[in-house]
Amino acid sequence: MAELEVRVVSERREGLLVELGRVVTEYGHVLIRQRLAQDAQGACLTLLLRGPDDRQLALEEALGTHPRVLSFESSRPQFAASEIAATVSAHVAAANPTPAVEAAQSPSPARAPAHETATLTAGADVARVERMLPNLARDYPRIFPWLINLEYAVADEARDASLYLAGRRTGTWVYKRDFALGAKLGMTDALRRIAVPALRGLVTVEHHDNQLHVRGCPLCQPGGASGGRFFCGFIEGLLAESVEPRTVFVRETSCHSSGASMCVFDISH
Question: How far apart are CA 59 and CA 5, in angstroms?
């Protein structure tokens, strides 16, 4: 169970808490406290909720698109912190078998070193990513305008980490929405049956062995900064719970922004 704070603005306050409370209950959450105040646009209602973390994105989408809601913001710092810790711990455990082995062997080309993953996740502008997630869920798969806006909105040093976190969270949401009822798969089948269909809703993609080739990525324009970190996180989020063991590492080895004909992502356990 995780906490979620939402802030909505509506034209009028009458019946607002009751109507939104029905939505909250429908998605398995409970109201901890609320605050209702006047706003320039009407009424501003702030709710602190608690419920299953795997239903929070759906709840945010339902609240954000409710006909009485003019604007919507959300934050869940506890959930974000716990997810980041879990993600980092999984990568650290998988990528560091023993100090002796690590000293003797370098990581395989497709495997992101644990310290790199930890740095990427810890450096994200978590609050801004959290506020954007309901918009990604609402407009999916037309999400690239939001991601491009995220690139410009965050500090330069937080850009890659924020894209990665947004990708990881979005990939996990897409997996739970579209693929979670399936059995555990081997990596090849997971790429073919989950990653490729999911990515085809966003970009043109081809599957070659343990690689995914993305053509014409909207986040990777020639001469610009690479947006590949979003896809690294997205693919990891898609596949982490579909394969055994539940550790997936994605590394971009070629990028359209650097002059390559396509973006290439290597995937490994």
Answer: 12
